[in-house]
Amino acid sequence: MDPVSLADRPVVVVGAGPVGASAAILLAQRGVPVVVLDRWADIYPQPRAVHLDDEVHRILATMGVAQEFAAISRPGGGLRLVDHRLRVMGSYERAGISETNGYPRANMYDQPDLERVLRTRMAALPLITLRGGVEVTTVEPTSPGSATVHLRDVATQVDERLEARFVLGCDGANSTVRTSMGAAMKDLGFEQRWLVLDVETSVDLRQWDGVQQVCDSRRAATFMRIGATRYRWELRLLEGESPDDLATIEQVLPLLSPWTAGVPVEELRLVRVTPYTFRAALADRWRSGPVFLLGDAAHLTPPFIGQGLGAGVRDAANLTWKLSGVLTGSLASDVLDSYETERSAHARALVELALRVGLAMTSGGRVGDVARKAVIPALGLVPGIRHQVSDSTTPPLVPSPLVAGRGLLRRGDRLAGSLVPNLPLPSTDRAGARLDDHLGGRWALVTLVPLAPSDRERLQSLDVCVVEAEASGLRSWLDQGGVAAAVVRPDGAVMASFGSPSEAVSAVLSTLRPATSPHPVTRSAPRDEVLA
């Protein structure tokens, strides 16, 4: 195969799982041609990830698959902490629609179903070329602005190479891309052996429609309903216990009896049973020149808060618009340094939260079990604790070249790094339209005061959408931040907020420049520039 020219195929994505597919879709929607490489010829059929929150559902909506994901997912009820007899010690609801993002706070699904949705979307975008049945052997940066991807056809064993402007390593925990760039995973001190089981049954187990965390030092466990007939258990393996002795439904049935008592064994079909080592780790580098790491290649999260795959989709949403901006010339190349700064801190915060939850569930022996029974019921009485556990909002982005510093004083930036609320639009004829539908992945300036015509024209020349707060319902959001205007990035995160619209306009003009090589952007949003 001849090398593909950089002009035709500027980005190569290694790995066609949900993270790689998301990155490819987001790039192609911005007019960036992409080649996606994957070792497998088709979707991996076994269930793995099962939960995404409202923020990630919002990202899926920007990829044009919100309805498709809703059709294959089930809203979750939240979290209950229970003892080994399933007696509730603490309950934290996450039912309903997030006011910030506009989608269910917890979404349960089967990963192969999600991958089919994403593959269908990729097939609808002609700028994406998907090649299965190829194994990437190494990635070699050839200059600060390009890289060579060496690959081998699995069937023929023929070696090939691709030249790329950028390479995105979305190839999982054993990432070849990470090895090629000389990065390593730094262990965060958490490693446990667990057994993961998926069971299909037409019998209603009559369990709560949320996640149950069994807080027990003898056998910590997690139970959740994934779909109408699909259930997931995660059971910690005991010292000396072999997964080989727990490979059939008959062998695991005693462990499932708290949930399945009275259900005939023939009514339970074991879809999958596999051992997992739950780990907490972060890559020591996420970038080497034109090569980037995303998803499990960059971070491994214990599953206790359901944020593993979601973190990878957030990686894609954070990086792709920056790559597009650099390729078109509208952004300086050094903005790419903000990817690791923003995403590594955010991922670390979620990894460490998952680690703490895992230790709280399992540590301390019998003394820990007694302490949990005393402490957990009281947590819901502590002001702020119940809201923190029930709220699906993740931390704001840390300061970077594209996120201003935050402060507690009125003159400090309390909105920077957080997401602009994806509110319903009261002044549109499109039923169910929200702010994201109008923005269409563009930069935006939200303002309490109408802009001068000259400022509006300058922003329009840079494809920046002006959103007047009164018309969009965002006045109270700006009021809470104590500001008159905010600059919102294409991923919905606030770059900075200001006391006057003129300051916001200046910030945009100092960040963006006219595109020198424009890509056509696929948008479902209206093309009018002012929401007023």
Question: How many independent structural domains?
Answer: 3
CATH class division of the largest domain: Alpha Beta
Q: Work out the radius of gyration.
A: 24 Å
SS strand fraction? 25-35%
- Can you count the beta strands? 25
Briefly note the CATH topology name of the largest domain: FAD/NAD(P)-binding domain
Helix content: 25-40%
Unreliable spans: 1-7, 380-388, 523-529
Which structural class is indicated by helix and strand composition?
A: alpha/beta
Shape verdict = globular
Q: Would you identify the CATH H-level superfamily of the largest domain?
A: FAD/NAD(P)-binding domain
CATH architecture title of the largest domain? 3-Layer(bba) Sandwich
Strand order in the largest sheet:
6-5-14-15-16-13-17-20
Terminal CA distance reads: 52 Å
Mean pLDDT: 88
Keywords:
globular; 532 residues; alpha/beta; eight-stranded mixed β-sheet; 15 helices; Glutaredoxin; D-Amino Acid Oxidase, Chain A, domain 2; FAD/NAD(P)-binding domain
Describe the structure.
The chain is 30% helix and 25% strand. It is of the alpha/beta class and 532 residues long. The protein has three domains: 11-50 and 110-184 and 284-358, FAD/NAD(P)-binding domain; 187-279, 2-Layer Sandwich (D-Amino Acid Oxidase, Chain A, domain 2), CATH 3.30.9; 435-531, Glutaredoxin (3-Layer(aba) Sandwich), CATH 3.40.30. An eight-stranded mixed β-sheet has the order 6-5-14-15-16-13-17-20, sandwiched between helices. Strands 8-2-1-12-19-18 form a six-stranded mixed β-sheet. Strand 5 (78-82) and strand 6 (88-93) form a beta hairpin. The radius of gyration is 24 Å and the shape is globular. The termini are far apart.
